[in-house]
Write a structure and sequence with these properties.
Low-confidence stretches: none
Number of strands: 19
Strand order of the largest sheet: 1-2-6-3-7-18
Number of domains: 2
Length: 462
């Protein structure tokens, strides 16, 4: 069996040679236009698994199978496993190979969605941050540990999905069906952003998300505002006030059932030293949201009700007429303690109580994504934190949950695993927008951090 010190492994994972292998594999993966929101790219979803991931993981000792989705017409899954003789511990890792629309023609000069390009310490390309770059880092880290000592010291199972950007259709059902194949002791994956580019980070779950539409239709067509102004109820005005019945002008939620759950002591402790924000990002509004909570508590431990879109009349070409209808798309990000099935009924009761019976409320997602988190003091969390601290020579930021939403309930709930996410991206990565990119320095550090964690999980020679 090959042996190597931990220090030499970390040095190898940080090396230029390792970085070039990562860039080479990521270039191939970005070139596959696996847009899950585009029906014309369906074949690319299968190609990503069949022609790219399956051969890549086979090269480091995994056997894999591509599975149909239990939901008719939904994208496929891949399960790969590496089982080592005598290993008593199993790790499940997750990734998604699908991406959002490439938005061709909107990228900066020299960059394009399905061509990996480098400029000013950044790798540009669709999926470079979400999620191809992140799972490519983890695959390189696995390879480096195997290269260093010939074995991992534990079993690994990989789950790839190709529909995360369309709400992970079928993932919950697939996890239920494949409980035995996906059975493990702990879960470790990479998605979402770090707290900021300079801070190694883990998060232990995610906020839930529920989208719903408010709509009001008072009459057919528009009517001249000079002839009818003051006589006809304006749907835009009605809808604006219906929104302010749900959330006030400072972002505070007014629906009693959707108010913030009490702040758990372990969560408050974990967030005490956390300062959200990114130097190149927007300035945080200090007077927005719950005035009794810190900025970190507002984004990682609180609910937020947002107006994503509002339309009445013709915003691009207004006319002097009272519109007949209005609609708004709303989104609630929520933490553990909120029942997803109770969100739309609670909004309905609030509007009815204040006289907005003419406003309809309709869920716009097939189902809300539940909120999840594990105890920040869980033994697996402590194990990962200790390893990352040893590698980075600084303790990582520990977030009880991501401010965004991921299908973590499939792993923590259905599979019953303690879940730790180690992101390799940062808030300014232009995720889902033109010019999506990965920071090269963060990629280099990410390989070292993940290699260190995988090395330490093996519990072999140090």
């Amino acid at each position: 069996m090959k042996t190597s010190t931990r220090e030499s492994l970390i040095a190898a994972a940080r090396s230029d040679a390792c970085l070039m292998r990562l860039k080479e594999s990521l270039s191939r993966r970005v070139a596959i236009a696996s847009e899950s929101q585009n029906p014309e790219r369906r074949a690319e979803l299968f190609r990503y698994l069949d022609e790219e991931i399956a051969p890549s993981v086979a090269g480091i000792g995994f056997t894999s199978t591509v599975h149909d989705n239990p939901v008719d017409g939904a994208p496929p899954f891949l399960i790969a496993s590496r089982i080592e003789t005598g290993a008593t511990r199993s790790l499940l890792m997750y990734a998604h190979g699908d991406v959002v629309s490439g938005q061709e023609g909107q990228w900066q000069d020299g960059a394009a969605p399905f061509l990996l390009t480098e400029s000013d310490g950044r790798w540009y390309g669709r999926g470079s941050a979400d999620n191809k770059g992140q799972h490519s880092i983890n695959l390189v880290a696995l390879e480096e540990v195997l290269r260093a000592r010939g074995k991992l010291g534990f079993n690994v199972k990989l789950l790839f999905e190709m529909g995360e950007e369309t709400g992970s259709p079928g993932l919950a059902e697939f996890c239920q069906i494949q409980r035995e194949a996906l059975g493990a002791d702990v879960f470790l994956a990479s998605d979402g952003p770090r707290l900021n580019a300079a801070s190694p980070t883990i998060f232990l779950g995610s906020r839930g998300v529920a989208n719903f539409e408010l709509a009001i239709a008072l009459r057919h067509g528009a009517h001249h505002s000079g002839n009818w102004g003051g006589l006809l109820k304006n749907p835009g005005t009605r809808l604006a006030h219906a929104i302010t019945a749900l959330v006030d002008g400072r972002g505070r939620i007014l629906v009693p059932e959707l108010a913030n759950p009490p702040l758990a002591a372990a969560v408050a402790k974990a967030l005490a030293a956390i300062e959200p924000g990114e130097p190149l990002g927007p300035e945080i509004s200090p007077d927005w949201g719950d005035p009794d909570r810190s900025a970190a508590e507002r984004v990682f431990a609180s609910n937020a009700l947002e107006v994503l879109a509002f339309e009445t009349g013709n915003p691009r070409k207004p006319v002097n007429a009272i519109p007949g209808s209005a609609r708004a798309t709303m989104q609630l990000r929520f933490v553990v303690g909120i029942d997803p099935s109770a969100i739309v009924p609670a909004v309905r009761r609030r509007l009815d109580a204040l006289g907005f019976n003419d406003v309809t409320v309709t869920a716009t997602r097939e189902e809300a994504m539940p909120a999840t988190r594990i105890d920040p003091d869980h033994a697996f969390v402590r194990e990962v934190v200790a390893s990352m601290t040893k590698t980075a020579r600084q303790a990582p930021a520990v977030l009880p949950n991501l401010g965004g939403s991921l299908p973590n309930h499939c792993f923590s709930g259905i599979l019953g695993l303690p879940t730790v996410w180690m992101p390799h991206s940062y808030p300014g990565c232009n995720q889902h927008a033109p010019n999506e990119h990965m920071l090269v320095d963060v990629a280099r550090e990410g390989m070292a951090l993940m290699a260190g964690v995988l090395f330490d999980l093996g519990g072999l020679e140090q």
